[in-house]
Structure formats: C-alpha cells, structure tokens
Design brief:
Chain lengths: ~500, ~240
C-alpha cells in the first residue's frame, strides 16, 4: 500500500507524493483521542497482535479512522537496512528467503517474505496493524486455580522459583528431567500472573502438545478463558488471559504477554529455533517474565547455567521419587555390515529375545528409516506383530496407540518418538547410538522414555554402538548428575 | 562468483545438488530453481488427448470419449451459442495433487516467484503456438488488489514475453465455488478494452488451469465477436 503524510498522520493514497509504507522514514502515531468511540470487536481482535489488513474482517476505512484517532498503530511490514530487507513479523533477513514481484497494491517491484508466507504475505508495502487503545476488561473468577493435586518436593521448589520470576518479570530456565511433571510446575506461577491481571502464554513447538495441554489447563483454571492456537485452530481470534500456542502462532502477536512460558526450547535445530526465539521475543511485552522449560538444555545454556550467567532451577527427580534409568553402553560391532548380510549382532538379537520371552514391551530407536526397514523383516521372523514408525508414516498414530494398548511387543522408531510420548512399562534400546543424529539431548530424551509410570518406575536403557561417542558419554553424565542431585536433595526414595 | 552456487529448491526449500558433468561445465550456466525430486512430481500432458481441450484420454472412461473429442467438448460444440469460438486449448501439465499444492502457494498464498518454475516450458509453448497477441485472463480490479498480481500475466512476463490486455473483468464471487452448470450459464464477466486493436488478430489466451473451459470460452466468444480472427488458449494444467 502507498501512503502520504498529511498533517501529522498517514493517509492511504495512490497518487503523487505517496510512498510504499516501508519507504516512509518514520511513521507518525496520532495521539489517543479519548472522545473517540472505538469498535470493541476490533479491540478484541487487535490487542497484542500484529496483523495484516487481510487478517481483519473490517473495512480499511474503519481501521484508518482508528489509526487517525490513535487507537490503531501502523508498522512497516518490512524494514530495510540499506537495501537488505528484514521481515518485521518473522525476523527473516536471509536473502534467499525473499523474492520480489510487480505489486498491484503499490505499483512497484515489491519484496516479499517467503519464510512466513503461510500466514499471509508480508511485502514491502504491507502495513502491520496493532492496537494502541486500552486493553479489554477481563473479569476474574473468585478462585482462579482449582487444581487439587499436590506437587512433589522437587516440583514445589521449582514452582516457587517460577512464581518469583513471574512476579518480578525475570527470566528463568526450568531444567526438569523427563517425567518430572513440568506442567504442574506452571500452575502457581500462572495463577499468580492471572491474579495480577497479567496475560500469560504457554508456547510449545508442537501441535500435539498444545492439544494435550489445553484440556489440562482448562480443568485447572475453569473460570479463565483459554485460547488454544495452532495452524487451523478455531480460537484464532479469541482474546484470552491464558493462551496456549504453537511457537509458530506467536508470529501474530506483538508485545502481548506479561509472562511467556516457552516449552521444549531445544526441540528444533538451531536455525529454526532462532526464528521461533524471535517470535517469542516479539510476543512478550518489553517488561515481562520469560520461563523456559526443557529436559535437555543445549551445551551453551548448560555452560551459562554452570557459570552463573543464566538463572535456572532444576527438578532432578521424577515425581514418583525413583531415579532415572542410566543407559548401558553395549558394543555391537559393525552392525550395518552384518545387516547387509541380513544378520543382526548376537547381543542385539539376545536383548530382543529376552524382552519377547519376558513379555516386556520395548522401543528400539534407529538413526535412519532405511536401516530400520532392513531390521524389521529380520525381527519379524521372531514374532510377526512387530511394527515400525517414522515421521511420514500415515499410520503413525495407530501404531503408537497399538503400542499403548500392549497389542505389539516391540515398536521400532526413528527419533520422532524421542520426546513427548509415554508408555507405562517399557525397555529402550538405541541401535547405532554412535550415529551423529543422536546428540546428547536426543539420547537423554530417549533414555527418558523408560520407567515413566509410578507402578513401573524401572526400565532398562541400552545404547548399542560401534564406538562410543562424546554425545553418549555426555548424555550418561547428565543423567547420573541429575540422579546424584536428586539423592543429595532428598528427592529420591531408593 | 561461485562456480556452482548452492541453490535452494523453490518448492521444498532443500538444497539442490547439481549434477556436474562435462556438459554442465561447457554449456551455458542455467539457474537451478527446483530439485529433481520436485521436478519429477510434475506430470506432463502426453499421449492421446482431446484435440480441442487437450484432455488426456489415458484416464478417461471410454463412454466420455467421442472420437477425438471428449464428451465435454462435444457438448460445448453442439451448443450453437458456443460452437467454434475456442479453436483449441493447449495444456502443459496434469492437474495432480502436487500441481494443486504448488498452485495453491502460487495463486492463493501469492508466492509470485513460483512463476519462474514454469517459465521455461511456457516459453517453449509460446514459441510454438502461432499468435499475434498473448492475452492473460484478467482478474477484476478487486481481486487483483487482493492477490497483488495476476497469476496468468506473471507466466507470460516471467517467460520473457509481453502480455496484451484487451479484456477487463467484472467483479463476481469466486469461480471455484460454483458448479459446472452455474459456471456455464453465468452472464459474460469480461468486457472489451477498446484501446487494444484485436480485429483480424490471432489471439492466445493464457490461464493457469482449464477446469470446465467456461472462463476461456467466455473470453474467446467475446474476442471473436469483437473481431478476432482466431482464439486459442494455453493453460498450465488440464
């Protein structure tokens, strides 16, 4: 779109003297006119957001009126540093993620961002709209948190820290082992924020997690409106004091939240993480609290924790007070070579047979689909009802469910099941733990699949390898260190 | 300059690993824009097809075929109101799931740069088909503003040709939401822009997809009635 500056504000205009919005040096913001009666629907839709005109079901005239009276803000969809564009919504500044086109809205050759194109095109002439008026009123119920459970000692200690961080707008990393019960640790902090009429967002990289968390939080906070946001969700335009969103959906928010809780910060490779971090920073208010949750912080974060550069708290023990299973390292020779001859190393075969004999379910992790698929027919000679899953498997959900129902004794998988899934009583093996896809965090997560339930808190974890790696050693060290800390703090029974 | 710059596939964003052989070293450097995996997902219109609309007979049941015409074209041509206006339609690709997905990104999400994927083959067809004017099916002003660009016009421009615009379009609800019969019986949505000389001209209409042929026939009829000598069409997919 093209605008020109009339008096002290922008007016959409095509003719002479007008410019695409990104070429206007500073965008004037008219002062708030207290006598203007604003549209409350627009207020609900736009508070804490950064949307494009195509996102809004209101005519541009009406939005322009709100801008002229100081209620709506215009920002540039794209900022230029010399000739290098940066997308204001997603932070993309990589040249290969931009393209250009002859734009009918501004009549110029216009850059656009291909990185966040799925959320509606941001081009050099796109205004990003925000709200500058008062925030919507939020009635509060008498009791906010109605969760009747009890926190474990370890959870309680972390929960206190979370409350403190929320109250004082600080950053905090909660380093909680797999199975510590992270969600409950958020309840008191969330309650404290909501009581102070603060807006809270829990963001996680995966839609499954949003879907799983939503009912749990709705049950814990029954009087609070909860917006559940993921690609294609119905709550897209719902204004709520408590928002649960995929990290991707945060891109539509701007200076919205007083508390942002970022789950599984390490779940993606660094480059992806970078843009999601950008989204989280955009979505929080300048004065706000940020809580990071993870079982496996990356090396940089771990170092920052050790050297006192990052505020953190650990939950070193599971809620059931049993130590984490420590992985055994078992050398299995050149297993890929054996596999070519359609043979398995004797110790792997023995491990599997033991599980089948004792009717103990097991998960077998593989570095690549191809290797897994070679393994499958050989193992099926032992018993036919063994399954294998990978990311693109259309029957992924059904197979995981079969495993849960104990209909299959063995499930082979790539790293997709490394986190987020819980089977109650299983042993875990990694085949080819030396592969560089198995980083420290992946191995800690994989080991964290065993011994989850309080009825079966023990499980065997075996890393079959053809040469130990640094990552394997670091993973085992991290697990034993957590167990030691658990013992020291009296959080373990055995 | 890098001798073999690392390119990224415009569709799947994966790195393209170029095949390097003597031909690549000695021939003119061609920009790699999609990877071979994506490239192979496109299917060309090949083999026996309807001589009027290029519908491949390969997937068509026998009772929908009338000699070298398809049943739809026969119905159009039987109708005196529509007989003979569209001389022929040419199509490049089959409208498969992959094409649909790419087209959704190009047209509805507005990823203009995807036009470059098709530039080479469109260019080939434009050189082969005899015409005086290349006419993109126009969008209404409202739709053009909403989309930011005309997807048919972009195909011509990115292939290195110049579009002519003798047609304009009245704003109506979206075509894709209508049934066949509704689409055939709509009133004329196009109007003639008299600034462009069309009398006696051979015209090639350009559009992204041939679905029922209704859009192209409406345009063809108006152009012929306004003096065009012959009207053919080229669509990316059929």
């Amino acid at each position: 779109m093209r605008f020109y500056i009339k008096d002290k504000y922008l007016v959409p205009h095509l003719g002479e003297g007008s410019l695409p919005i990104s070429k206007i040096q500073t965008i004037p913001q008219p002062p708030l006119n207290p006598d203007f009666s604003f549209n409350p629907d627009l207020q609900l839709l736009l508070t804490g957001k950064q949307l494009i005109l195509d996102d809004l079901p209101f005519p541009h005239d009406e939005i322009q009126k709100h801008y002229e009276n100081g209620y709506v803000t215009y920002r540039k969809g794209m900022e230029y540093n010399r000739s290098q564009p940066t997308c204001s919504r997603c932070g993309n500044n990589k040249e290969n993620w931009f393209a250009q086109f002859p734009c009918s809205r501004c009549g110029e050759i216009c850059h656009y961002c291909r990185k966040c194109l799925m959320m509606g095109r941001i081009s050099a002439c796109t205004p990003l709209l925000g709200w500058n008026g008062p925030a919507p009123e939020q009635p509060l119920p008498k009791t906010i948190l109605e969760w009747k459970g009890r926190l474990s000692e370890g959870q309680q200690a972390a929960s206190n820290q979370v409350v403190h961080a929320v109250e004082s707008n600080k950053e905090l990393l909660v380093w909680a082992v797999c199975g510590a019960g992270k969600t409950e640790v958020l309840f008191e902090g969330t309650e404290s924020a909501l009581t102070a009429r603060k807006r809270v967002c829990i963001a996680t990289p995966r839609t499954d997690v949003v879907l799983e968390l939503t009912p749990r939080l709705k049950a814990a906070f029954p009087g609070i409106t909860v917006a559940s946001l993921y690609g294609g969700s119905e709550d897209r335009h719902l204004y709520a004091p408590l928002t649960i969103a995929t990290t991707h959906q945060l891109l539509r928010f701007y200076h919205a939240f007083d508390t942002v809780i970022l789950d599984e910060v390490d779940a993606f490779p660094y480059t992806v993480e970078e843009s999601l971090q950008y989204a989280a920073v955009q979505a929080r208010k300048p004065e706000s609290a940020m809580i990071y949750l993870t079982a496996t912080p990356n090396e940089k974060w771990q170092r920052e924790c050790r050297t006192g550069k990052r505020a953190f708290t650990t939950i070193p023990a599971r809620f059931h007070r049993h130590p984490l299973p420590v992985p055994h390292f078992t050398w299995c020779g050149n297993w890929q070579k054996q596999l070519k001859k359609e043979k398995l190393p004797a110790n792997i075969l023995h491990w599997v047979k033991e599980r089948l004999k004792n009717k103990k379910q097991a998960l077998l992790f593989f570095p690549h689909i191809g290797l897994m698929e070679k393994f499958l027919p050989i193992l099926r000679q032992l018993t036919p009802n063994i399954e294998a899953v990978h990311a693109e498997d259309p029957d992924r959900k059904e197979k995981v469910q079969k495993m849960r129902n104990k209909e299959i004794p063995l499930l082979l998988t790539t790293t997709i099941l490394e986190r987020g899934v819980t089977f109650s009583n299983i042993d875990v093996a990694v085949i080819g733990a030396e592969d560089n896809i198995f980083a420290e965090s992946a191995l800690v997560q994989i080991a964290g699949r065993a011994g989850r339930s309080k009825d079966y808190p023990k499980g065997v974890v075996t890393f079959f390898h053809y040469g130990k790696t640094e990552e394997m050693i670091k993973a085992r060290k991290q697990i034993t260190a957590m167990n030691q800390e658990g013992t020291r703090r009296g959080l373990l029974d055995s | 300059m890098k001798l073999f710059p690392e390119a990224q596939c415009l569709i799947c964003h994966e790195k393209i690993i170029p095949v390097i052989g003597w031909t690549e070293i000695f021939s003119e450097e061609k920009e790699l824009i999609i990877c071979s995996i994506c490239k192979n997902k496109f299917e060309r219109v090949e083999g026996e097809k309807c001589k009027l609309c290029s519908r491949p007979f390969q997937f068509l049941e026998e009772n929908f075929r009338r000699g070298d015409l398809c049943y739809d074209c026969e119905r159009w041509e039987e109708d005196i109101e529509w007989h003979g206006y569209l001389h022929a339609n040419h199509s490049i690709f089959l409208y498969n799931d992959f094409f649909k997905e790419v087209m959704a990104n190009y047209k509805f999400r507005g990823d203009y740069v995807l036009a470059k994927i098709f530039a080479n083959c469109v260019k080939g067809f434009l050189k082969r088909i005899q015409s005086d004017l290349l006419v993109p099916i126009p969008l209404s002003d409202e739709r053009l503003y909403e989309r930011g660009f005309n997807q048919a016009e972009a195909l011509i421009v990115e292939s290195g040709f110049t579009p002519a615009k003798p047609l304009t379009r009245i704003h109506l609800e979206k075509q894709s939401k209508k049934s066949r019969s509704e689409r055939i019986h709509i009133p004329q949505v196009f109007q003639i822009n008299s600034q462009v000389e069309i009398i006696g001209k051979e015209i090639l209409l350009i559009d992204d997809i041939y679905t029922t042929g209704s859009t192209l026939r409406h345009a063809a009829k108006l152009l012929k009635e306004s003096g065009a000598e012959r009207v053919q069409s080229l669509t990316l997919a059929r």
